[in-house]
Amino acid sequence: MKPDPGHADTAALRDYVEAVAELLRVEPAASWSEHGSPSTAYIALADRSPRHAGRLLMLQWAADAGWCLALEPEAAEEPTVLVRWPEPRRPRPAVVARRVRAALTELARPEKNTARCGHPSG
Fold first, then answer.
1. CA dihedral defined by 79, 72, 27, 24, rounded to 10 degrees?
2. DUF6292 domain spans which residues (predicted)?
3. Gap between the Cα atoms of 64 and 40, Å rounded
4. How many angstroms from the chain centroid is the CA of residue 34?
5. What share of the chain is helix, strand, coil (3-state, %, to 5)?
6. I need a surface site. Which of 76, 81, 91, 102 has the fewest CB within 10 A?
7. How are beta strands 31-34 and 55-62 bridged, if at all?
8. Domain regions of the chain by residue span
């Protein structure tokens, strides 16, 4: 019996996503990928966003859009994208991990207050 023609591409995508997950210290079971048109992937992060009421974070990848860091959706909502990395579409796993760690560091910093004290808004 011959293997599915897309088997090699499916396995390569799974290995790529699991390599990214491993660099982020995420178990392979917390990642998912699907080879298709477009191919997509997901990695559940254990990290929470202090800027968004402690909501869990996730990574999402699509062959036509690249990687993004987003809030895990609640109920039927769509994921809220916090950071996009559209280029290159499929960077080395170490590049993805470095970008994610930098974004997590930025999210951990207190937000800059843009309102000026003593001046009413509106």
1. 80
2. 16-101
3. 9
4. 15
5. 30, 30, 40
6. 76
7. unpaired
8. 7-108
Residue 78 per-residue DSSP state: P
The residue to which tokens 């990928």 are assigned: 33
Total residue count of the chain as it appears in this document: 122
E strands in 12-65? 31-34, 40-49, 55-62
Alpha helix stretches (DSSP H) within 1-122: 7-23, 93-108
Contacts for 65 with CB less than 8 Å, ≥ 6 apart: 38, 84, 86, 89
Give the pair of three-digit tokens for residue 38: 């477009």
pLDDT in tens, 16-54: 999 999 999 999 999 999 999 999 999 999 988 888 888
User: Measuring CA to CA, how many Å separate 24 from each of 86, 99, 113?
Assistant: 19, 11, 30
